Amino acid sequence: MIREIFSRNRKNKYATIPSNASKTDVPEGIMTKCPECKHIGLTKDLIKNKKVCPACDHHYKMTAYERVSIFIDEDTFVSMDDHLSTVNPLNFPGYTDKIKSDSEKTGLNEAVLTGTGLVNGRKVVVAIMDAHFRMGSMGSVVGEKITRAVEEATKQEVPFIIFTASGGARMQEGVLSLMQMAKTSVALNRHSERGQLFISILTHPTTGGVSASFASIGDINLAEPKALIGFAGRRVIEQTVREKLPENFQTAEFLLAHGQLDAVVHRSSMKETVSTLVKLHAKGGN
Hints:
Blueprint lengths: L1 H4 L1 E3 L4 E3 L14 E3 L6 E3 H6 L15 H8 L6 E3 L14 H12 L5 E8 L2 E8 L10 H17 L3 E7 L8 H19 L4 E10 H4 L8 E4 L5 E2 L3 H8 L10 H6 L5 E2 L2 H14 L6
Helix pairs in contact: 5-6
Subunit structure: Acetyl-CoA carboxylase is a heterohexamer composed of biotin carboxyl carrier protein (AccB), biotin carboxylase (AccC) and two subunits each of ACCase subunit alpha (AccA) and ACCase subunit beta (AccD).
Subcellular location: Cytoplasm
Main location: cytoplasm
């Protein structure tokens, strides 16, 4: 059956699926096609590779729970504030239904998962944004959960680590979403005043109000390769400055070259890198 469905493309070195193949021939989700190089491989192999394309190194988006599974030590993660839920303060049409739909789809109560856990045996508080929930946009509950997570890290005197992935402030909540930029930043400033570490890890995409607030003010700012990071969109900026921007503008590599990041770290090395940074900043270096 496999030989009938798949043919080997010698030139491009990857399997292809004939256009006349029946949808019932290949179970849905068993294969994944890379959006960058078009490589087709088994989804289970992609997951084993931490959702990084084996052909071109493209970093796929991850769910919050997938991120927990590869970053936090097994069976040590304890989530926080799962009871918080979003309301519709502006009576925006259809907003409540969309929130409910995304919650059912992702298993999250909002676009960020927060909690405590161990990274190679060292305790941290983490916040992991999930772009599969309203494109990771930041509303009042997202801001509240991140703020509470920061305050818990300050209280326990442990590092706070966040993985950002967001389209920015959530328009359906208007100024209430914009207020979260200041609230989260104030909590992080208090965390810093207590001498505690904050590591921000920017993943694809990190844009808008999130990039302009907590995502960019880490003691150490890291990013995954080729992640889109910026405030306004390329076209808006080009129309404003009336100049053509570089092709790699707003990528992690561009920001690193211009001093806005401390390092671009491959997903396979992220846990060890963060673990080392946490150890180096621990009292006595232990």
